[in-house]
Amino acid sequence: MVVELRRIGNESLTLVTALEKACFPSDFWSRATLRGVLARWSDSVSVGAFARGELVGYVSASLSEPWEVHVLSLAVAPGHRGRGTASRLVSSVLHWACMRGCTRAFLEVRVSSESARAAYERLGFCCEGVSDGYYEDGGAALVMSMDLSPEQEVAGIATAFRDLFDGRVPRVGVILGSGIGWLAEIDEPGFAVPYEQIPGMSGSSVEGHKGMLLVNGNGSTVYLMGRRHHYQGYDGRQVSALPAALASLGVDSWLLTTSAGAVVPDLRTGDAVVITDHVNLSGCVPAEPLRPVGPSVYSRRLGVKTVEMGFEAGMPVREGVFACVSGPAYETGSEVSLLADSGVDVVSMSTVQEALALASQGCEVIGVALVTNDVGSGESVSHTEVLRAQTAVRSAQGALLRKLVEKMELGK
């Protein structure tokens, strides 16, 4: 059974309360306490683990000092223990902390809970001491800690935007692929920041990307109008730095768009493919989390909703597998055949690094590949042709993508 991770807040209070009672029948946190733990702040995070829509685990953490993260709570339903869910949850909040520049993580566990102590030791935590009378019933806590490897470039970007957002962090992030800047133009305008003015982000644009960050009028969504690519000389950390920084501040739900080439013959220019999985052939990956992301990089929940919306509106939308290549050369006929034989539907030179970086922090990610060239058209493919295809793409998919962003803003 695939378990998906995604950020949660007080909208999940009832589910978390029930999970606490199931996990700790005589020692669960009160609803009032959990309401404070789950509150969404730029310096705290909660991640839930979902199996077939059911909450089967959660973790919460907050920054206790400028460079320290405190793991506040962790619970996994009895039937889902021993399957790696707990380690993935803890990994997500520690990776989040690394994006904020943390160098140390610590937590408390009951001295009498040997199984919990052993689980944390397997993750790399070490015993630091004992805190007597830590729990309300007078029980002692074992204090455990571990060193972290901070991502300083990402942390620098996060610090700059923490002040800029002034406590109003957008919940939704949208990354716009080549020529897809029109999606941001549909929304009500707010404020924009050129990449050149963001620490470490100068020189990031290519043709078809405006190279700026745009927040919409009501502050609910941030658009990244352009992205870094591996073929420009950036490594995986640099490619994903800006979205990773925004995610660390609380941008929890992400739509990643990409202009892509069709690999299978039944796709046409203007079609949309909701990414269910990917094949990373780029040789480029972002910073590694404590534990691998696993099979659930892309949100099944959002993917199904998007396909349903497309079907209801009569729009050409389907699910498929996406391949990321290094570029900047476009694929030869033999390469397209190889990708098709491997089960790939669409291909481009981006998206995977960002998806991995965001999923590793517990963000909910949906990827949508917008087809800009067909298979076997007989025409050579160039970046200029990709940009010209945006008229057809916008006509076919503009309404669907706008509706998807609106649903993400509402948390649906």
Structural summary, described in words:
- The chain has 412 residues and is an alpha/beta fold.
- The protein folds into two domains: 4-147, Gcn5-related N-acetyltransferase (GNAT) (Aminopeptidase), CATH 3.40.630; 152-409, 3-Layer(aba) Sandwich (Rossmann fold).
- The protein has helices at residues 13-23, 31-38, 85-99, 114-123, 152-165, 182-186, 236-239, 241-249, 300-313, 333-341, 352-359, 383-388, 390-409; strands spanning 4-7, 44-51, 54-65, 68-76, 104-110, 126-131, 141-147, 172-176, 189-194, 212-216, 221-225, 253-262, 272-280, 317-324, 346-348, 364-373.
- The strands form two sheets. It has a seven-stranded mixed beta sheet with strand order 1-2-3-4-5-7-6. A five-stranded mixed barrel has the order 12-15-14-13-16.
- Strand 13, helix 9 (300-313) and strand 14 form a beta-alpha-beta unit.
- Helix 1 packs across helix 2 (31-38), helix 5 packs across helix 8 and helix 9 packs across helix 13 (390-409).
- The protein starts with a strand and ends with a helix.
- The model has no long low-confidence stretch (mean pLDDT 91).
Indicate the low-confidence ranges by residue numbers. Answer: none
CATH topology category name of the largest domain: Rossmann fold
Percent of residues in beta strands: 25-35%
| Chain-averaged pLDDT | 91
Q: What is the strand arrangement across the widest sheet?
A: 1-2-3-4-5-7-6
Q: How does the helix and strand content classify structurally?
A: alpha/beta
